[in-house]
Fold each of these.
Amino acid sequence: MSAICQYAGTVAATVKRDAAVFLSYRTRFVTQILAMLITITMFYYVSKLVRPGVVGPDGKYFAYVVVGIVALAVLTAALNTAQLIRMELLAGTFERIVISPIGPVGGVVALMAFPVLYAIGLAGVMLIVAASVFGFPIHLAGVPAALVVSAVAASAFTCIGILFAAGVLAFKAAMSPTWVIAAFSILGGIYFPLRLIPGWIRWFSDVQPFTPAVDLLRHLLLGTPAVQPVEAEMLKLLGFTVLLMPVAVMVLTLAVSTSRRRGTLIEY
Amino acid sequence: MLRDVDLDLPGGTATCITGRNGAGKTTLLRIATGILAPDRGIVTIDGISAPGRWREYHRRIGFLSAGDRGLYARVTVKGHLEHWSALALIPRGQRKQLVAEAVDRFGLTQLTGRRADRLSQGQRQRLRLALALVHRPKVLLLDEPRNSLDADGQEMLSAAMTDVLRRGGAVLCCAPAGDEKLDGFDRVAVIEDGMLRFV
């Protein structure tokens, strides 16, 4: 218990530091809000072109796509941690994390906290803006459960981010997650329902946590029927998280020990 | 690069290792920190090895790497020390006091609110030393610590090393060959052809 409290303290300290760095760039928040507004505006008008009934009742496409986009933003934040690790390696600050008592594995996980939490916060702002300006039909009764789903989903996405971080430590390549994000956006049902894509590739939606997370969030935030039974979707999401976490930590630990043996742990 | 290195650092002693560029001084320190795994052999502090008990091992060491890297450009001096004291698992109740001591020890009082990218090279080095020492390590590993330090900074470094030794700790410092300031060390060794030889 004491070890968990100590580790929570290091995560909190890392979040505080990253928040300080973030706030030191005064225009960053403003530009992100602007980008978000432009994205919402664009999809607001695109939604007027979408044939009614494709994703639900008339006018629902906007709500459908906004939920997908906010979920993708959290996934993107988790996957971009690999780039953060690379920046830490370049700056020589990763060495300090490595020699700290929490070690490289604990340090990498702590590094992911701020970006993921920030992405969740920004997603909330995006939903509020979409509701207040563009009439996004938010289902208030589902918000508390949606927060729980977001937390579980963020944990699952973090595991995928850890795998990418392990890749950076092991291979030193600036592995851009762009292609993975693009794949999730197509095969995870962000912009269009999965039933529109060919059946031979639809299996992908069953082997990753993103699709059930988005389905659940849509169901909870919009009050629309879930694609599959809610309990099954929630179990699937939890299952992915529970399975992915030890695998991700194990892969990261392996990447660290291999790099220590090769002498490349703090190389970039 | 290193062969058959057998080095014991008794408590209360300061050891300096010299050698030409590329001799293996930094490699030796990186092995001691656990950043590198040796091909053979083991490094222990109080019978604890890094791979076996990472947390306990690293609580005992303070490390200053060569150069001036390892700082977050836009984080203040105080921010660095507070963050590191959390990473070093200093109990919350002691952090404030230890950070204040480190700030005072390395003459950073006027600079606590200044960002790292606005510090001079010497001030950066003093901050890096403060980070290596804030958690009161038992073994202090220093790689070319006098880089960019003025006379005051070098005195602060000496005082900090003396403090570690007084607490029963050990200091291992690497300096390039030709560095004439080897007084203050109990032992001096040279790395040549991968071998460690005391002089």
Amino acid sequence: MKIIAPIFFELKQGVREKTFWVVVFFFIFLLGVSLFLGELSLGDTGAVLRTVCLSSIELSALGLVIVRYTYNFYREKEFRLTDIYLSYFSAAHYIGGKLGGAIIVLFIYLFLSGFLGSLLLILNGAFKSTVFTGIYSIFLKLCFICSFVFLVCSLINSPLLSSFLVALIYLASELSYNALRLTSQAKYVFIKLVSKTLYYVLPNYHKVDLKIHAIYGVPISTLYMAEITLYTCFYVILCYFVTVTIFERKDH
Amino acid sequence: MAESIIEVGNLSKTFGKFPVLKDISLTVFEGEIFGLLGLNGAGKTTLIKSILHLIKPQKGEIKYKGKPLLPLHIYKEFGYLPERFMPPLETTAKELLEFLGMSLGANLLTVSFLLEKFNLGGKKKIKYYSRGMVQRLGLCCAFLKRPEVIILDEPTLGLDPLGQRDIIKLLLDINREGTTIFFSSHNLLQVERICHRIAIMKKGEIMFCGKIDEFKAFHTTESFEEAFLKETSHSNNEDNCPNIF
């Protein structure tokens, strides 16, 4: 019960704050741009529209996660709200509530933007049911980022640096597979080791990201979906425990 | 003689190489209003945060009713209002209290009762509150769990005289109901008016701990302000002060 309270509160605040609605409008703007790009494209208009639509969803949701949760975390700290919460909840409940709330707000945002995006695709005859798989994979990818937001915020005292670091983690996770492939032929063992470590330590977006499948209508097996969902859950829970440990050890 | 409710023993805390608390020891008794005084940077907030387990001291112990103070005691028996408190602006007081109350199983009736007692409109969003209302809400958050002890860090800071009067009146009401109040303040008049005992901190040390009359008598003055200024500004007096611990 104790963890449910902060989740609900986080959820209530999350959808009420201006950031959420600014991101929704930003997404609508991106959708307009994607429609324009679809009109301009010479090749497969449907694929272009699906690509831009899914990328818009991912980009805006990433902005929401990084901006809203990083700044909110520091705002609560600055105005001593964290201190009050910690006189009611343990660090495990506090972080758990924030993380749970963040994931639910993310889900609501993706549901809303996914609905709008799908509507646009349907109106343009570019909709494929695999788009939902793509949106789900975006959800999983951003769940990793949610857990990293709280991990980084617990470690660092600057909101700007934290946002930058989380964005960097996202980029590194996107590129780690390509980096591993590129460095597999490298001479230096150190470079190989670094790229290998990054590939295994960072979230494996190479496996989780299903946007390409969604764009070209390639169906994904349920078993594979279950596997990547389990992988995400495991990773997020691991991150959560590390965050709680760090948070408990720090002075507030 | 009342039983001790909080006992701080030989508490030390260093930030980097800078000692903020130096071997602090003090006792707060059940049912009293205890004032913690000192100039800015004396270590009052650090001491308060150490008691609440928000800061980990390097040395020393804190006891609650004679037993080591545990986080569980804080969740159940301690209310806290920090300095410069600002609640989430997009929520209402009722929602904030219900959220905090959920952790305790407090029912909606308690929340409505408290909103009335603290003279807060539950439906208005917090962003439309005045500073005085925000502070009353903070006090309400601290009181929600009906704690044994309420710890307040400069509760009247930034309030107009009317707002200060409201807060003091509420504190006295709460204390009358049996809650021990431990608070830090720069407002000497208020402290003199409501505190049963005080502690004066200077550069991380307790310079005096006891009754206000004893403090004034020690400095051979009738004025509390004068005694306080003597205590905090005279470095030569440090060795002669009655540090009872």
